[in-house]
Design a protein that fits this description.
nine-stranded antiparallel beta sheet; three-stranded antiparallel beta sheet; 576 residues; 14 strands
Length: 576
């Protein structure tokens, strides 16, 4: 039995081999080579675009040829895949032709579909042949990838960063003596007179803009950091003891003048203490800001700000008819020596973003005299820093008072609040505590902005005469090739995936048919020579082959290949 079975296997293998002898090498080769060629071209397309990605695109000719190369590769890869799927379609079409009879009209559509997409309108024909429809549709749809993939490479302006160093002009606190006015007496003692007039310019300009004044402009975007020591103030709620002194004296002052104090800023002067009275705040020197530095305190130089914003709107005007209870509070701002970490972002458009983070080192008193001359760096540093404090106090000191008689005008002698409403200590929706804390933060930021403006900014058209070197990142826009590989890989991946399915279907059709076919005229001639067909096309007009196809011919059924074996030669075509 085993030998007989073995003999049957040999016989079947021989028959299978003989059945496949009509498969010509050209069909499987074209399908395989077309698919592999398409994949290789797709890979080349990706490799070329990948090599260009991020490269400068400042050469117009290079841009043109990059797009041309991508378009050519997209077209050729589509062409290769379409050739392979077209051959696969031919093989599967003959699977259908061998299987059953077909109307001649259906045969017309099946043979013409790869060259005429309008044949898809014959829905009745294609609905019954889903695999053939899929192969034809894929052959037509593969070119979509050739539309998408060339556009995955574009030329865009890209922000390019370059590390380097930058020379930054500055006005150092330790060497510059132009921020203050001093008088040398006794040959080795320096007396502080006042802040220099030149310091008024950055101070007033900073208050008006409520920001750090601009640095020198740049043709490119610059980012850099600087560290330096300089003055800073810390502002907090005043102690209850000092607040009680001020509150009692200001109430006495309000009674003396028949006014209500909305705001009062002052630096401690002789007379300030537990016994202070209303006459202290009525002093002309205090009100017009002649005394702008605290030479009284032995630790940190201070400025006090008394606030009573109850019944006042955000513009500083009294709210009509308000009779609520006054809730006064007080801020103390103290001078410190601080180390700054400043970050500068200078844009080519002119915009600048400057932030700083001070770390308070030690408090600083204001000294009216110091041992040493103007040549002493220690003297210059101390007096420069207290000059910045004086410029800050000049902006925030003085009163804002409202007469109890509403017909009388408001008195406002505070520089900062008169020039910039953004600094005004009134805000709707906030209680007195929140308003006071907000004002404290605003004062700290104002002092910091004055410090940075005085040190680095262009003031009256000039920069500092000293220089420092900073590590900088220079950014500029450069035209570069920008590649989107994900889009290309998805488009090509889908095309290759469906093309592979088509090729596998073509291979299956080859094995099923046992032969390879084309839709060439010679193939059609070889399978359609038959007496019955000759009788069908007997009239002279039909023999011309002109359009349209006569109805009796179009509706005639034709059996081709193996499906015609069992029929008589009178009614079917020859089998090859």
């Amino acid at each position: 039995m085993s030998e007989k079975h073995y003999g049957n296997v040999i016989v079947n293998e021989i028959k299978d081999f003989q059945r496949l002898r009509h498969i010509h090498w050209r069909a499987p080769t074209v399908m395989g080579a077309g698919f592999l060629g398409g994949v290789v071209l797709m890979t080349s397309h990706h490799a070329i675009y990948q090599s260009l990605s991020g490269e400068p695109a400042d050469n117009a000719l290079l841009q043109l040829w990059a797009i041309r190369a991508g378009t050519a590769l997209a077209f050729l890869s589509k062409l290769c895949l379409a050739i392979g799927t077209g051959v696969a379609y031919d093989q599967w079409m003959w699977v259908n032709l061998h299987s059953k009879p077909h109307e001649i009209g259906s045969l017309d559509s099946m043979f013409a579909i790869l060259g005429n997409a309008f044949e898809f309108l014959a829905v009745r024909i294609w609905w019954r042949r889903p695999v053939l429809t899929f192969l034809a549709a894929m052959t037509w749809l593969l070119p979509i990838s050739a539309i998408i993939t060339p556009g995955t490479l574009s030329v865009q302006p890209v922000l390019v960063s370059q590390n380097g160093t930058l020379i930054v002009p500055q006005r150092p606190f330790t060497t510059d003596s132009n921020a203050f006015c001093g008088v040398i007496s006794d040959g080795n003692t320096t007396t502080y007179a006042s802040m220099a007039t030149g310091l008024s310019n950055p101070t007033f300009a900073t208050v008006l803009s409520n920001s750090v004044l601009p640095l020198e402009s740049s043709s490119t975007n610059l980012t850099f950091k600087l560290q330096f020591f300089g003055p800073a103030v810390t502002c907090n709620m005043s102690s209850s003891e000092e607040f009680s002194w001020a509150k009692r004296a200001i109430l006495e002052y309000e009674t003396m003048t028949d006014t209500r104090v909305f705001y009062y800023g002052w630096a401690p002067q002789p007379g300030w203490g537990p016994d202070v009275n209303g006459s202290f705040f009525a002093s002309t020197d205090l009100q017009i800001g002649n005394n702008r530095l605290d030479f009284v305190s032995k630790d940190a130089a201070r400025v006090f700000i008394y606030l009573n914003t109850t019944g006042v709107d955000e513009t500083g005007n009294r709210i009509p008819g308000f009779d609520g209870k006054a809730e006064a509070q007080m801020i103390t701002c103290a001078l410190y020596n601080a180390s700054y970490d400043a970050h500068f972002a200078v844009k080519s458009t002119g915009a600048q973003f400057i932030t700083a983070f001070p770390r308070f080192e030690n408090w600083m008193p204001a000294l009216s005299t110091m041992e040493g001359t103007l040549e002493d760096p220690r003297v210059r540093q101390q007096m420069n820093m207290q000059a910045v404090m004086e410029s800050f106090v000049m902006m925030v000191n003085g009163p804002i008072t409202y007469s109890n008689d509403i017909s009388f005008p408001t008195i406002n002698s505070v520089y900062g609040l008169a020039m910039n409403k953004a600094l005004f200590p009134a805000q709707p929706g906030l209680n007195q505590t929140a308003l006071t804390l907000r004002q404290a933060k605003q004062n700290e930021m104002l002092f910091q902005n004055i410090t940075l403006s005085m040190r680095y900014s262009v003031v009256s058209g000039s920069v500092g005469d000293d220089q420092t070197v900073a590590a900088a990142v220079r950014q500029r826009f450069e035209s570069q090739f920008v590649y989107e590989p994900r889009t290309l890989l998805i488009a090509y991946g889908l095309g290759a995936f469906f093309a592979l399915i088509c090729v596998l279907l073509g291979v299956h059709a080859l094995l099923h048919n046992g032969a390879s076919y084309t839709n060439s005229f010679s193939t059609i001639v070889r399978v359609t020579r038959d007496p019955a067909l000759s009788r069908l096309i007997a009239e002279e007009g039909d023999l011309q082959g002109a359009e349209p196809v006569p109805k009796h011919i179009r509706r005639a059924e034709l059996r081709l290949g193996r499906s015609a074996k069992s029929l008589s030669p009178s009614y079917a075509s020859s089998w090859i």
